[in-house]
Amino acid sequence: MMLTTPALAQDTTQLWSVHALGVKVGELRVSFSQNGTHYDGSGLFQTTGMVRLLARIKFDVTSQGRITTTGYQPSQYKGHIDTGKRVSKTELAFAEGTVQKVSGSRPESVPIPAQALRGVIDPMTMMWQSLRDRQDTDLCTLDGTQYDGTRVAAIRMATRQQDGADVTCIGTYDRLAGYTAQELAEMSTSPVSVTYQKSGDLWRAIKVKVTTRHGTATLHRRD
User: What is the tens place of the pLDDT at every residue in 24-35?
Assistant: First the structure.
């Protein structure tokens, strides 16, 4: 599928508040820059307010790669997750449709077959694909598979719903490999949606809803 990306400023930053059970639990900052066909992206989440007093959770991810006519092709990914109780770091290298785990402090729960890693992208690149501004013909077309160093999952948008001036893309988050049988029994597929609002000639993501084993999380655009 041809990639239809709008002309991007050298630096683009999005700010999101993250809510669970109706309470704000943290903030997410997503930054992306493009220079010709080369891109750099970063995402930083951390708990805030009263929640931070109970759980100091932070994740910091970065990636870089090329933009081609077929999509975003990462070359390097680094992830740093701190749950307050455990810290894990992962570095991945991508080349010609393959991925190699350069370093990682978190082992795989279940071995991942090589075929499951073909054509995967990293979580930061997937995040940007989900949140970037889109043209009308590009709405609700996301269909990709990501690998974070221990697990493989796919995000697939299947339905487009119009609600006044907003459009919501509805799809699924499918756990494919690296998960235990118990984890898959609890939830192998969960709903995910992204709501967009028209801004000039483009559609701007303003809300994301994701259902996990621990409940539903909602992200609201703040910038």
Answer: 999 999 999 998
Task: Name residues whose C-beta falls within 8 Å of residue 54's C-beta, 6 or more positions apart in sequence.
Answer: none
* Range 52-61 burial, b when 16+ CB lie within 10 A, else e: eeeeebbbbb
Q: What is the CA radius of gyration of the chain?
A: 17
C-beta neighbour count of 192 within 10 angstroms: 21
Residues 6 or more apart from 212 whose CB is under 8 A from it? 187, 190
9: which DSSP letter? P
Q: Which residue in this structure is represented by tokens 């969960």?
A: 190
C-alpha distances (whole Å) from 220 to each of 128, 184, 198, 207 are 15, 28, 16, 5
* Beta pairing partners, 127: none
Helix (H, G, I), strand (E, B) or coil at 182: helix
**Runs of H (alpha helix) within the chain:** 49-54, 123-131, 181-186
Whether 173 and 158 have beta carbons less than 8 Å apart is answered as: no
Q: Tens digits of per-residue pLDDT, 94-149?
A: 998 899 999 886 777 789 999 999 999 999 999 999 999 999 999 999 999 999 99
Measure the CA–CA gap between 94 and 200, rounded to whole angstroms.
35
Are 101 and 39 in contact by the 8 Å Cβ rule? The answer is: no
Both tokens assigned to 216: 């539903």
Confidence at residue 10, expressed as pLDDT on a 0 to 100 scale: 65
Q: If you search the block for the tokens 């992206």, which residue do you land on?
A: 41
Closest CA to 14 of 158, 157, 130: 130
Bridge partner residues of 143 (DSSP): 156
Residue 3's pLDDT is what? Answer: 53
